[in-house]
Amino acid sequence: MIKFFNISSIFVWIEKLINFINSIFFILLLIAISIALIFSPADYLQGDSVRIMYVHVPAAWIALGSFSSLALLSFLNFIFKIKNLSLISKSIAPIGLMFTFLAIVTGSLWGRPTWGTFWVWDARITSMVILAFFYFLFILSHKLILDEEKANRISSLVAIIGFINVPIIKYSVDWWNTLHQPASIKITGSSTIHSSMMLPLLLMFSVLILYCALIFLMKYKTEIIRIKKKNLKRL
Amino acid sequence: MIKDLIYMNGYGIFVWLSFFITFVVCGVVYLKTYKTLKKYEKEFASEIQELSSERKKIILKKSRVASQALSSYKETI
C-alpha cells in the first residue's frame, strides 16, 4: 500500500491515465455540449439563459471542491510533513483559481439577463471573490518564497484559514438576503431541478472533472520532474 | 433552427460568451500546462543525456522517474 503512494510508482500511472483521459475526453465533451446547448429545454422563467448554468455551476462546484481538498491536504501536510501532499496541493491550486474565475465571470454573464446587472456585492459573489483571493495567496506564497519548507508552511496556513470561507459561500444564500438563488441541488434532501436539466449539468460536470484530472496529472508530473531534476546530482 | 440556436431568444450573446470564455480559458491553460511539462521533460532528458554513460546507466536503473521521463521525451521527438 505504501509502495502505491511512492512518487515513482505514481509516475508510471500518470502517463497511462493521461492517455486514457485524452482518448475519451472529446467524445464526452461533444455529447455534453450538444445536450447542454441544443437538446436540453429552456427554463420556463429564465428562458435560454439557463444554459449558462451548465458551465457556471460545475465551475463553482470544482472551485469549492478544489479548495476543500487543498485545505485537507494542507492540514495533513501541516501535521505529517509529507512532501507528496504539498506537490499535490501545488498542482490543484491553479486549477481551483481558474474555475473560481470562470464561476465569477459566467455568473456575471448570467446575472445581466436575470438580475439586470453584471455585478453586485452580494454575499455569494463577494465570498467567491474572497475564495479567489485565498487561491491567489496560496499560489503567490509558492512563487515568492524561495525556501520550499517555509513556502509549504505558509501556503498550508493560507489554505486552512481560507477554508473558513467555504461554508460561508455554501450557506451565504441562506444566511443573507442575496440576489443569488438558493441551491437547487441538495446532497441531503430532494433537489428542485428537473431531470432534463440535471442530465446535461452532470455531463458537463463530468467533462470538466476529466479536464481537471488531465491538468492536475500534467502539473503533478511537472512537479515530480522538477524535484527529480533538482536531485539528479544526488542520485 | 440554426438562427434559433444562435440567438436563443435574445440570450445567445450571454450563453455563447459564457461557453466561449470557459473553453478558451480551459484551452489556454491546457496548452500552457502541456508546454511547461514538455519543457521540463526536455531539460531533464538532456541533463541525463549529458551524463557519462556509466552514470546514466546507474541513474536510469535507480530512478524509474528518470527512465520514464526519458522514454516519454524520446516518444515526443
Helix content of chain A: over 70%
Shape of chain B: rod-shaped
The whole-number mean of residue pLDDT values of chain B reads 86
Question: Describe the biggest sheet of chain B?
Answer: none
Describe the biggest sheet of chain A? none
Low-confidence stretches of chain A: none
Low-pLDDT segments, ≥5 res of chain B: none
Termini separation of chain A (Å)?
25 Å
Count of separate DSSP helical elements of chain A: 7
* Radius of gyration computed on alpha carbons of chain A: 20 Å
Kindly state the number of beta strands of chain A.
Answer: 0
Helix content of chain B: over 70%
Question: Could you characterize the architecture of this molecule?
Answer:
The complex is a heterodimer of chains A (235) and B (77). Chain A has 235 residues and is mainly alpha-helical. In chain A, helix 1 (7-39) runs antiparallel to helix 7 and helix 2 (53-80) packs antiparallel against helix 3. Chain A is 76% helix and 0% strand. Chain A has helices at 7-39, 53-80, 83-115, 123-144, 148-162, 165-175, 195-230. With 77 residues, chain B is mainly α. Chain B has four helices and no strands. Chain B has helices at residues 2-7, 12-50, 53-62, 64-76. In chain B, helix 3 (53-62) packs across helix 4 (64-76). The longest helix of chain B has 39 residues, at 12-50. Chain B is rod-shaped. Chain B starts with a helix and ends with a helix. Classes of the chains: A mainly alpha (235), B mainly alpha (77). At the A-B interface, helix 1, helix 2, helix 3 and helix 7 of A face helix 2, helix 3 and helix 4 of B.
